[in-house]
Amino acid sequence: MRHGKYPFVIGFLFAPVTLYVVFVIAPYAQAFQISMTNWRGLSAPQWVGFDNYRRLLDDGSFWKAVQHHGVLLLALPLITIAIALFFSFLLNVGGKSSGGQRQGVWGAKFYRVVFFFPQVLAVAIIAVLFQMVYRPNESGLINGVLMKLGFDPVLFLIRPNLALWSIIAVLVWQAVGFYVVLFSAGMASIPGEIYEAAEMDGATKVTLFFRVTLPLLWDTLQVAWVYLGIAAFDAFAIVAVLSVDGGGPDGATTVLAMEIYRNAFVYSKYGYASAMGVALFFLTLTFAALTLRLTKRESVEY
Amino acid sequence: MSITPEHPVELDRRTVLRRAAAVGMLATPAIGLLSACATSGDDKDNEQVAGGTKSATNPLGVKEDAPIEVIIFNGGYGEKYATDVHEPLYKKAFPKSEVKHQATQAVSTVLQPRFAGGNPPEFVNNSGEKFLDFGALVNDGQLQDLTELWDAPSVDDASKKVRDTVIPGVVEQGMFNTADGGRKPFVLYYVSTVYGIWYSGKLFKDNGWTAPTNWEQFKALCEQIKAKGITPYGYAGANAAYYQWNVILTQAAKIGGTDVLKNIDNLEDGAWKQDAVKQAAEAWAEIGAKYSDKSFEGLKHTDVQLRQNQGKVAFYPSGDWLENEQKKDTPAGFTYQLMPVPSLTASDKLPATAIRAAGGEGYFVSSKSKNPRGGMEYMRQMLSKAGARGFTETVGAATVVPAGSEGFQFPPGVASAQAALKAAGQDVFNMLFDNWYKELDTEARTATNELMFGRIKADAFVERIQKRADAIKKDSSVTKFKR
């Protein structure tokens, strides 16, 4: 059978690899090519070398966007993972133990479904929903209540130092459900005896969480961090639909994808937009490689 | 033209998918042949049809059975005027031809891949938030030179050229510089658009208020309106900040004369720092601070317009498409009325009646489409008396063909706009920089929000826009225009 192995493997790989090359590799490669031109989207482009990249260096909105990715990169994974861990701990091992089995808090099954709801909605729909939630006048969900109670409305998406955090809140809200499920699956595979043994030794719930759950969940956490980091490099749909004046006010919520979109589809500067795309590509790649390298550590076998 | 009626174009999942597909399509040809890259605009498959025989009824020599494709921006004017009026007119003239119709709210999303692929549609209504950059189109030779159309005999009177049936200045407005240094008409601006500040005739009558003509009256009235618990003035910062820079620049033109705007359009050094612009910005920043509402920055144009219909906002700046756009939400008896932007000082160069008016809604014919002559003929039909009349009857707005609106009973808002236009006489002006340089438009919008919602002062406002204008002037990849 050995001599037939390669044709067999190649036969299987042919279709997916072709598709991948056509729809993923080729556009990437072409983005590199276009980024070296001053293509305006219609007729043949002219080669301009690294001009576009040089221009990136003193483009204020580009650096603003990069800075926002920095904030997102810290805040989004940290907040999301913290909340998701807390919830999944409560849902899986936070309750009483019955017959030697750890249980979640009362109603855990119901909560699990509810937490997952945002994940089912399309991103654009979430953004539209939050337009209603954040609306700055009496017809907004939050401000309507506040104004009834006699408070001034909170200008969520308008105050420059609040706008980005309002966007982050939506991203977190949307992501938490998925990670609750991911972490729940991870926790389910931790043997109950370990908890039992730890409890017998007098461990509190807090100790249980930090000394048992967290170390045994490390691999899953690492995956979550990379996923969320990559999500932090996107955020386009939410920003495009939700923010004021397309990444505003005055660029306070802009992200790279928003700037790429604006340069390509509003200014018709496809060459320049591609240069931004290439920059984003390398940023994402660097992040993924760094995270995997830094979080590498012996996983605990059980 | 970016100053056009528009529905809020939300970015929905489908658009995202379509866009993703478009990107895929751009990339696909690249792997077919390494030499044939996606960015090559010419496509040899797209052979143009031969011309037909010229005759009195067919002066442009259209091939009678060649199909044409019509793309309409489905915004404030909808698409009915095309499907019910203009397309039937074309079909009547050329029964053997097939007219393909498509309406969209995102013109560039639909057409960008078509131009890149070399098979653009014949006739395009390039308008709305996502319109294609006219400058880029001209630069790439994608637009049909309309000289022949303007010189052709008109449908109704063979002794009159088409160019003589439209309002003066309309042909000029659609002219662009070409790469070889010439200047040719490429775009037809079809709708007569008058800009100003709108209020409810009923609200004002009930309260005994009259439209102010100078700044003292304007501010005094704003005080009274505020005392009534109504927000005196507002525009939507979330997506329609350009309605407000339009007001500021209109004010500047009144203070310093129309050359102020010409300098801005021509990217003259220090154009934005002219005194008139700064004065106008200062005056309006005060209105923003005292007589508007901070929350409007987070609202879309439809939200603020609705609030005006509900009697919560008194003055709202817009063009005369507003009445048609709000038709569904306007309570009976609301009576839209337009007032020109009030004079700021007694020494203003232009009188209080001066007004910004222009052809709105840009239409073009693709020179690289299969049947460009058909596209021009479609325009000729649009510009006929029947075509203009039908448009006016369908959407309630005047066209650039005066014969089409003769004796037509306009709704009160458009009627007041037409009256204001008449009162303005020769003091009618326009600005074009937003069409020519979209980056400058974006910067002006952002700066306007910063100014009107109190984060920067007039000095910083003119400073930052001037900086962007200078950068555009230096950018060799951007085609420059002059008027």
UniProtKB/TrEMBL annotation, chain A:
PROSITE patterns: ABC_TM1. Keywords: Cell membrane, Membrane, Transmembrane, Transmembrane helix, Transport. Residues 66-291 form the ABC transmembrane type-1 domain. The keyword Transferase does not apply. It is a multi-pass membrane protein. Its main location: membrane. The chain crosses the membrane at residues 7-29, 71-93, 113-134, 162-182, 224-244, 270-292. One of its GO terms (biological process) is transmembrane transport. InterPro entries: ABC_transporter_permease (IPR051393), MetI-like (IPR000515), MetI-like_sf (IPR035906). One of its GO terms (cellular component) is plasma membrane. It is found in: Cell membrane. Belongs to the binding-protein-dependent transport system permease family. PANTHER family: ABC TRANSPORTER PERMEASE PROTEIN, DIACETYLCHITOBIOSE UPTAKE SYSTEM PERMEASE PROTEIN NGCF. This is N-acetylglucosamine ABC transporter membrane protein /chitobiose ABC transporter membrane protein.
